[in-house]
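Entry 14. Structure prediction run on the chain below.
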Amino acid sequence: MLERDVGQPVSVARQNRIGNTDATTLITDLPYGPKAAETAREAVVVALHGAEADLLEDARLITSELATNAFASGSPPLVLCVDRTAPTTGGLKVEITVTDGGCSHSLPFSPPASEEEAESGRGLVIVEALADDWSLATGTHGTRVWCRLTRQPSPSTAST
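Output returned:
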């Protein structure tokens, strides 16, 4: 068992080559507090180093929303996992998962329609708009939100 100070983030990164694919996974604890979103955005920048700017910005925004929701609606611990898969033929697949210790009330699977003037309530709407696929599982013992972003190889890199 890994011993650590409670409340101190722990990051684990691993890189693998599986067939013709490079895979990197970053797993880190997020602080249970207002800094959860900031820490999550910083972790995504590390995990997606060298990725296209539009993918990185989408991933940062999604991760920020998921971490904020986990803090606002869940309980500790908050954990972020970023899986990056890059086939040698080009392109990139990113899977982002945020889990928390659960919530006492159930949340709807579909993102709620938000009012234009509302200051909150757009998190899952943003995730649904930007992600290629996503899911939400809630319960009293844990909540897990997962999404996938994919980018196909650009024509100039696919022919090399």
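The first helix runs from residue 36 to 47.
Filed with the rest of this week's runs.
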